Amino acid sequence: MSSQVENANVPVINGVDGVFSDDSTTVDESLDTQNVAERPFKTSIPQQPVTEERIPYLPPPSSVLTNAGTARATLAASREKPNGTTENNYAANHQHQTVVQQHVEYWDTDHDGIIWPQDTYIGCRRWGWSPPLALTAALIININLSYPTVPGFLPDPFFRIYIDRVYKDKHGSDSMAYDNEGRFKPQNFEDIFEKYDKGNKGGLDVWDFLRFWKGQRIVFDFFGWTASGLEWLATYLLLWPDDGIMRKEDIRGVYDGSIFYKKAEQYEQKQKRRQQERKRTSPKLVTMAEKLM
């Protein structure tokens, strides 16, 4: 089995990764929690209250998410989804890309490994974002993230982003769910919700995010503070939850990029329904106008 999926419980057939099974079944890990006294270490001490306020994710011995601290090269694994995104064989079809490459592939519609500013703009418009918002996002993303990915020393005059070097765009003061090589660290992803999901809602609201943003900041990392804030603002605008809670599964889908395709498809279906409604309404309006005339 290849190293990137050794912890994903993925079947291997003749040395080739097999079909990824659906793993969305909820597992009650509370039945197998380990006593604090049985652990050979402490995760919090009363002398430092912040350690009691932000408890890290502690997987029980029988957790389906094995070796949570080991970064996955191609899977955005979580406690609920140890095999990553299995819908439409998404994880199986992206075994040639790291998770951070999967995160940005949505914008590379021609699959040439390069994301132009217009690619970013079009991708945002496919979610239903207005032209000014999509243009703003494209400018912020490509202007700031292009240079670290260029193959040489000179900046790219077109602010293109090269996907094979997109791991160099990693910044500080974020969740640290991506490592420096673009792999995905389930432990750090789970820590987001263990530490900041107040009330165990299964996601983050605006106040949770503000605590997360403050708690993850690194001293004098002004770029990281700003980038993290803008990324999560964009995530909220994309998900736009009715109850104000960004669900954990949706956030995980942002990391591996799978949610981007879903949102684009949802907007496309919404537009088709509107067009059908207009076609049904137009003849009625014509008939009414003729009667009035």
Task: Draw up the topology in text.
Blueprint lengths: L11 E2 L2 E2 L31 H5 L45 H7 L8 E2 L1 H9 L5 H15 L15 E2 L23 H11 L6 E2 L1 H10 L6 H18 L6 E2 H9 L1 H35 L1
Antiparallel strand pairs: 1-2, 3-4, 5-6
What order do the SSEs take from the amino end to the carboxyl end, as H and E? EEHHEHHEHEHHEHH
CA-based gyration radius: 22 Å
Distance between the termini: 75 Å
Helix share bin: 40-55%
Low-confidence stretches: 1-19, 30-34
What's the total count of β strands?
Answer: 6
Sheet with most strands: 2 strands, antiparallel
Strand order of the largest sheet: 1-2
Number of helices: 9
Query: Helix/strand/pairing class, anyone?
Result: mainly alpha
Name the beta content range: under 5%
* Rounded average pLDDT: 89
Task: Give the overall shape.
Answer: globular
Features:
293 residues; mainly alpha; two-stranded antiparallel ribbon; two-stranded antiparallel sheet; 6 strands; globular; disordered N terminus
Task: Explain what you see.
- The structure is a single chain.
- This protein is 41% helix and 4% strand.
- It has 9 helices and 6 strands.
- It is globular and about 85 Å long.
- The strands form 3 sheets. It has a two-stranded antiparallel sheet with strand order 1-2. It has a two-stranded antiparallel ribbon with strand order 3-4. Strands 5-6 form a two-stranded antiparallel ribbon.
- The N terminus is likely disordered.
- Helix 3 runs antiparallel to helix 4.
- By secondary structure, the protein is mostly helical.
